[in-house]
Amino acid sequence: MKRNTQRRGSIALILIAAFLVIGGLSTPGEAVLRPQTITGDVEKGMPWVRLEKDMALQAGDQIRTKADSEVSLLSEDGSVFYIGENTELAIQALEFSEPQKTRVSRIKLLWGALTAKASTLSFSKNEFSVETDTVVAGFKFSSARFLRNDQGTEIYPIEGTFEFTTSSTIPPGQRVVIKIGAQEIEMGPAATLELLVEAGRTRVLRVRGMVMMNGQQVEEGQEIGTGAAPTRALREEMPREEERQEFEIEYDMPPQTDADSPSASPVDVTDGTTQSSEDTTESEEEESEE
Questions:
Q1: For 205-239, what is each residue's pLDDT tens digit?
Q2: pLDDT band at residue 125 using 50, 70 and 90 as cut-offs
Q3: Helix (H, G, I), strand (E, B) or coil at 287
Q4: How far apart are CA 268 and CA 136, in angstroms?
């Protein structure tokens, strides 16, 4: 009788141990963000300490940059975050497990400027979002720039599929604006907008609630044009050349023509040669002597 009891106890312990091992393997590991480039005064909190390149950032950490300061962060899944000056954000969730095909990344922008590029992963659980106090932006193979200031939230979708969802209330004087080239889309409270941005074209996949552009309600299936001026302005605000290479985002700007070059010389259109003022004077003197 005692032997049977001991055997049952041993079997129970083995089953419990196996359950714990399997459960441990099925739980995605906590991911980290690692600084790639740091310029100026960048801090990690809390408590606030100076951010160094050898530090790892986890869920629950906060980051803030001072004036003329910036930092780029790389996730284990290959996603990239560029944080501009005078910016503060909180890392709400970071998970990554390649065996379990799981990626979770949630960043809250409290103030300032953030550019985010989600890596291309076909995982069964794939959550990537950036949010402010008034809007949540879900990404799918996407990249976008976010601005949070005293006027509200501005979002510049660059490429990919996006789902924007606003909070149930938006404080007076605040706006949630999606900028597509020269167009501005303003979202009201408790609204949803899903966009596909690719090859310079933007198409509305889904819309719910008050989503306005040029005083009219945005409709599902609507095509939204882009303009050159905001693209140039966005390019000027994007990271420096090395950060652009990290994001792998191409920005096609008009090539410089000869007319734009300050060193261009006057050309004689008759024979394609450049004629100086000295040559002209000598030829005139020879004609007068004859």
A1: 999 999 999 999 999 999 997 543 333 333 334 44
A2: confident
A3: helix
A4: 60
Q: CB neighbours of 204 closer than 8 A, spacing ≥ 6?
A: 193, 194, 195, 218, 219, 220, 221, 222, 223, 224
Rounded to whole angstroms, the Cα distance separating 114 from 129 reads 12
What pLDDT is attached to residue 134?
A: 97
Distance, in Å, from the CA atom of 54 to the CA atom of 123, rounded to the nearest integer, reads 29
Instruction: Give the whole-angstrom CA distance, residue 130 versus residue 137.
Output: 5
Per-residue pLDDT tens for 39-57? 999 999 989 999 999 999 9
Predicted confidence at residue 4, as pLDDT, reads 53
Distances (CA, A) of 207 to 4, 158, 188: 65, 19, 12
Is the Cβ–Cβ distance between 57 and 87 less than 8 Å?
no
* Of 104, 108, 112, nearest in space to 60 by CA: 108
Q: Which residues pair with 128 in a beta bridge?
A: 105
**Following DSSP, what letter does each residue of 199-266 receive, concatenated?**
TTEEEEEEEES-EEETTEE--TT-EE---HHHHHHHHHHS--HHHHHHHT-----PPPPGGG-TTPPP
Q: What percent of the chain has pLDDT over 90?
A: 54
What's the number of CA atoms in the CB half-sphere (13 Å) around residue 186? 11
DSSP secondary structure code for residue 276 in this structure: -
pTM for this predicted structure:
0.69
- CA dihedral (89, 241, 176, 163) positive or negative: negative
Can you list the domains of the chain with their CATH numbers?
30-247 (2.60.120.1440)
User: Which of 50, 38, 24 shows the shortest CA–CA distance to 81?
Assistant: 38
- 42 and 63 in contact (C-beta within 8 Å)? yes
- The structure tokens listed for 206 are 């889904």
Q: Are 107 and 116 in contact (CB under 8 A)?
A: yes
